[in-house]
Write a structure and sequence with these properties.
This protein is mainly β and about 200 residues long. About 5% of the residues lie in helices and about 30% in strands. Strands 4-3-2-1-5 form a 5-stranded antiparallel β-sheet, with no helix packed on it. It has a 5-stranded antiparallel β-sheet with strand order 12-11-10-9-13, with no helix packed on it. The longest helix is centred in the middle third of the chain and has 13 residues. The N and C termini lie far apart (about 45 Å).
Length: about 200
């Protein structure tokens, strides 16, 4: 494995991050931490869980990954062979699978992939992701937040209704909160024409 700037990598703990920059010592910045070019974490203790497991390859035009977001909630037996194969591979790699239970997608550890049950890839992103500057989103507490900046996969959002100047940080690709406990759940309603 040889790290390069701009690659997406998966760590042994399951987190996915982008390789941001390289320093003069040939070490690479991943989520604010330094790594060797082989993906070994350089923090105190050289924790295995924080080292790079693999580089996430971009699919080429010949072998594009099928849509695994499963918006139509198709049962496993009705998926194409290709979709089933990619879900099985994703589970084998530890990418995470979700199961539809009581009309809600829940994390599914060690899925059995039984007929009649609907599954999707855990990392399947909703259409409103990644977060974009100028757009308004709602968090889990129902608070509307305007995105004011996105850089390196990190988004800064402020409270919309009080014209707050204090920005808080979310993962721009997932909507997960970095500092607050409330994740972004989707776009705000009726925000057309607002900037």
């Amino acid at each position: 494995m040889e790290l390069k700037i701009g690659q997406e990598v998966k760590l042994n703990n399951g987190e996915v991050h982008e390789v941001r920059r390289e320093n003069i010592n040939g070490h690479f910045d991943i989520d604010g931490w330094w790594y060797t070019s082989e993906g070994i974490f350089l923090g105190e203790g050289k924790f295995y869980r924080l080292s790079v497991k693999r580089i996430i390859e971009e699919p080429d035009s010949k072998s594009e990954r099928p849509d695994l977001s499963n918006p139509d909630k198709v049962p496993f037996e009705d998926m194409t062979d290709e979709q089933q194969a990619f879900l099985l591979l994703a589970d084998h790699r530890g990418d995470g699978v979700k199961l539809l239970f009581n009309d809600e997608w829940i994390d599914c550890k060690n899925p059995s992939f039984i007929d009649g049950a609907a599954y999707r890839l855990k990392s399947a992103s909703p259409s409103w992701l990644p977060l974009e500057v100028g757009k308004v989103y709602v968090d889990e507490n129902g608070i509307e937040r305007r995105c004011v900046s996105v850089e390196g996969g990190v988004a800064w959002l402020v409270r919309k209704e009080i014209n707050d100047t204090a920005a808080y940080v979310w993962n721009a690709n997932t909507g997960e909160a970095k500092h607050l406990s409330s994740n972004i759940t989707g776009p705000a309603e009726n925000t057309e024409g607002e900037n």
